[in-house]
TrEMBL record:
Tagged with keyword Cytoplasm: no
Keyword Phosphoprotein: no
Source organism of the structure: Gordonia defluvii
Molecular function as annotated in GO: DNA binding
Transmembrane segments: none
The name this protein goes by in its record: MmcQ/YjbR family DNA-binding protein
Length: 130
């Protein structure tokens, strides 16, 4: 028996996703792929995901899941806007709920930091040259 495809858990016309997508895909060599029913951003490893939830708990469909800078992770998780995402949280990832009060500069910084954790040196060098 083959595996059952994961249900799609986002809407392509979500304006919040559109902003996340623009920011993530502006990074050198970044691509988007659907995984586990959600948009993920990669170079070539995953550095961000749109939407997620807390293990056994609340789903945050309008959120950004990123690989946190290890030096900032504890401070981020102490902020009530952030959460420990299911499955990837134990591996250094954090989630940020996105809403009308979202600081989009902060979203860009989080995606940048996540990108730098996983991207090849040449992609980081290209980013630094911008």
């Amino acid at each position: 028996m083959g595996s059952v495809p994961h249900p799609i858990m986002f809407s392509d016309d979500d304006p919040v996703l559109a902003r996340v997508r623009r920011t993530a895909l502006a990074l050198p060599g970044a691509t988007e792929a659907i995984a586990h029913g959600r948009p993920t951003f990669r170079c070539p490893k995953m550095f961000g995901m749109y939407g997620g939830g807390v293990k056994g708990g609340v789903r945050h469909d309008q959120s950004l899941i990123v690989v946190a800078d290890p030096a900032e992770r504890e401070a981020l998780l102490a902020d009530t806007r952030f959460f420990l995402p299911a499955y990837v949280g134990p591996y250094g990832w954090v989630g940020l709920c996105l809403d009308d009060a979202t600081d989009w500069d902060e979203v860009g910084e989080l995606l940048d930091a996540g990108f730098r954790q996983v991207a090849p040196k040449r992609a980081v060098a290209e980013l630094d040259a911008k």
